[in-house]
Amino acid sequence: MREEFQADLNEVSRLLVTMAEAVRAAMRKATTALLTADLKAAEAVIERDAEVDSIYAQVETKVADTIARQAPVASDLRMVITALHISADLERMGDLAEHVAKTAKRRHPSPAVPAELRGVFKGMADVADRMAEKITTVLAEVNATQASELEGDDDAMDQFERDLFKILLNDDWPYGAETAIDGALLGRFYERYADHAVNIGEQMVYLVTGQPVSSQS
Question: How many angstroms separate the CA atoms of 201 and 199, rounded?
């Protein structure tokens, strides 16, 4: 029975790593669409979001089946419930990448962001990609140390968002309200992507230590 339970956990872990890789690729491609007005890249992200949703459904089904068949004890239950929380965060990250891609598609053939914002969004995208890469490693290796680093990465994302709003709210902003709103929403998409990455890191720390991150010294 224990071997069967471990096999179930391994399958859930494999699915989570696959999701993490997919949402990283999605945001990278969405950023390409955003900065280069690449319609094909935008459409590819939108179309492939269904794959992330499908994996999320597989995780939910596998977790429910494992709980029903294995009746896990407290420590084992923590593993499967943590996996469920992580999959939900990953699914949302995929949705946020899709939102970026949809903005790029809606603005096509024009670039979705003006030249003044390109540097900020390139910085936000780099942070998002770094965090997504760490998530993949954390899930594959159950690395609590690297998981705890995500909070610092999120601080960098927050700084980029502040920089973005300084530009958008400047009296000399020349592009009008619609472009400013698009910029603010796009910044929010990247910021929330990072927040969900932090949530995953906290879940992994909890899985390893058994204590909520807020209670860590």
Answer: 5
